[in-house]
Amino acid sequence: MAFVTYKVDFDIILEVWKQQLWPNRKSEIRPMSSMQFLGGTDMSIYEKYVPSFWAVFDNDNIIGVNSGFATNDSKYRSRGIWVNPDYRGKGIAQLLFDQIDKQANQENKTVCWSIPRKTALPAYEKAGYVKCSPWFDKGMEFGPNCYVEKSIFHYD
Questions:
Q1: What pLDDT shows up at residue 37?
Q2: Which of 34, 22, 27 is nearest to 69 (CA)?
Q3: CATH number of the domain that 139 lies in?
């Protein structure tokens, strides 16, 4: 079966995040995060950039989601990837990562980054991300996490 990514609204992805990715999360789930690559925050992200939200469906059921947004002039963050456990290993995460790469490319970013959980790192590595920090829990509700990054190639 061939799967396709679709651009969706935040409200659609939010329900998946609340129920599947971050159940019982204490902090508010916002469309974007002010976190910066390798530490720190930048609250101006909310005024400067527009997030994108992506989903993969099987009939009317969401089987995978991810989002992305710029965090500065050169970097784009992949945030909130989730794939239904029944569909893992079928390339859904890779489709979602590819869509984030395309969006980053359209926005002229040169690096994609993220903060995956330890359990998600293999999917990120398969998509070309490289772990570039130690594991950490501080400031994270669902750790341990690490920073990962990958170069984005621009197509003319």
A1: 96
A2: 34
A3: 3.40.630.30
